[in-house]
């Protein structure tokens, strides 16, 4: 990493994103149930020539949501391992064939890479799945979500921001642009 070290928010200049995690500053000018609604509010502010660089969207009441996407079986684990290994092996095989100057040896490194990739992919998948000993027989996708999203603004522009967002809230929902 290059540049000077910034130990905290005291060294942050106005208008710059702090280098280390710091609590957000500003006054609340809106609160929304979804991130999409908060984004729409900030977009509305931008369309109204509002200085959006003074705005921060803050997720409050954070939750880690893990959505189960399917059941894991040995067949699925080994098939997925073989497929990912095949892609990696194919890539390595192509690289080896590009740098192979022997005549007539164009497809050999690709096939060797493919076979080795499948073998190693299956082995690594089997070891990884076997080490869980049946304690995690499902696939899932994790996502960090918030219970609500607050839009904060620097105090010098907060009143104007609240006024603009009040106009957005008073518009009929079919007039709002997506």
Automatic annotation (TrEMBL):
Pfam families on file: YflT (PF11181)
Record-annotated General stress protein 17M-like domain positions: 29-102
Highest taxon listed in the record's lineage: Bacteria
Keywords: Membrane, Transmembrane, Transmembrane helix
Transmembrane segments annotated in the record for this chain: 77-99, 105-129
Keyword Metal-binding recorded: no
Keyword Translocase: no
Region (Disordered): 1-24
Protein name, UniProt field: General stress protein 17M-like domain-containing protein
